[in-house]
Amino acid sequence: MKKSVLFLLALSLVLALAACGLAAEREKPEVDTIRWARANSGNVLVTLAKENGYLRDAGINIIEMPLNSTADALTALSTKQVDVTSNNGTNNPLQFMAAGSDFTIVGGYMLKGMYIVAKKGTGWHGLGDLVGKKVAAPRSQTWITGPLLDAGYNLDDVTWLTYSTNSDRLAAVIAGEADYASLSGDLLFRVGNLADEIEIVAWADDLMPNYGCCRMNLHTDFVKANPTTVKLLLKALIRAEQFLRAHPDESVRILAKELDASEEFVAAYLKNPNYIPSADPVKHSIKATWDIMMRTGFLAPEAKDYDLDTHINTDLYKAALDELIAERRDEDPAFYDERAAFFQANNL
Asked: Do 241 and 307 belong together in one domain?
């Protein structure tokens, strides 16, 4: 009996020492606090990474700083008042970069989720339906303008109506001021309640697959000085993405509480199969968006010489994903295998 007790004590000591060794070997971020520009809609991946302890595991604390205006958020990033922006589309950061802001895109937030609405019964036969019509969308909406140009249409064939908010665009269609409108995912609850008047006729992903709605931007100096921090942050966000896909109902409850919104409101977009958050950088889509912006005149002519490749860092995301596959693939093989294949197809 005494030998058995001694053996168990010795085994416990060995395991404890091994655990201490692993803890000692755990990578530490260069900085442990990240200032994140937070829009009103928040960021579900950040919320889940916080709630589930993934950021704590990475040794990182995120301070979310309210900056709902895209211009304010990107200006704050340019002047290093914040470290990360993620809710400001793809076009706007690229415009800032072309104008001299030293950003590096390391990942993403919203992969897709925007759509086109029209009056009930309008239907959809393709991009030609927009020709000769009034469309409540900015002329810079690349997931519409790029496919239009590729299909041989002229952008002047469409009357573009500019409104300050997505809600105003929706109201324009309801009032008959516009034939179509492009909208964001956070209006899906309202659009669903207007099913007798309004219908979704096309999703952005139908026109430009994996277009990369919102990219994750950092100041280049931060990325260069803190590569381990960025990699560990991306690992936490990828884990949050896995949780979101595996536990959609619980994710809805967590985000609804964070936003102080109803679960029905959050579920309308978070559980919609066409609304996909993803931390993947989707480099090909970023470059395609840049090309469309050049073709449509939303970047200065001298931007043709801009070295965009040096401002898209896919290595840190790839390192984060590879480490997670080595450490956690058994938890969800289908997710991690799909993420690896997706990265290969959309970045290399």
From this structure: yes
Domain count, the chain: 2
pTM score, two decimals?
Answer: 0.91
Amino acid at the residue 222: F
From 143, 177, 207, the end of a domain falls on 207
Q: Has residue 283 been placed in a domain?
A: yes
Angle at CA of residue 48, ends 83 and 259, nearest 5°: 85
- The pLDDT mean for the chain works out to 93
The pLDDT of 157-171, averaged and rounded, is 95
Residue corresponding to tokens 């800032």: 96
Going by pLDDT thresholds of 50, 70 and 90, the confidence category of residue 26 is: confident
If asked whether residues 52 and 84 sit together in one domain, one would say: yes
One-letter-per-residue 3-state SS of 18-66? HHHHHHHHCCCCCCCEEEEEECCCCCHHHHHHHHCCHHHHHCCEEEEEE
Please give the pLDDT value at position 25. Answer: 64
| pLDDT number for residue 42 | 87
Q: What is the CATH number of the domain that holds 103?
A: 3.40.190.10
- Domain stops at, among 207, 239, 266: 207
Sign of CA dihedral 69, 75, 79, 85: positive
Condensed to tens digits (0 to 9), the pLDDT of residues 31-49 reads 999 999 998 888 999 999 9
HSE-CB at 46 with a 13 A cutoff on CA atoms is 26
Answer yes or no: do 194 and 271 share one domain. Answer: no
**With contact defined as beta carbons under 8 Å apart, do 114 and 192 qualify?**
no
* Upper half-sphere CA count for residue 296 (Cβ side, 13 Å): 26
Domain that holds residue 193: 115-207
Interior/surface letters 175-191, b for 16+ CB within 10 angstroms, e for the rest: eeebbbbbbbbbbbbeb
| Residue 18: inside a domain | no
Rounded Cα–Cα distance for residues 15 and 60 (Å): 27
- Closest to 293 measured CA to CA, from 122, 61, 99, 84: 99
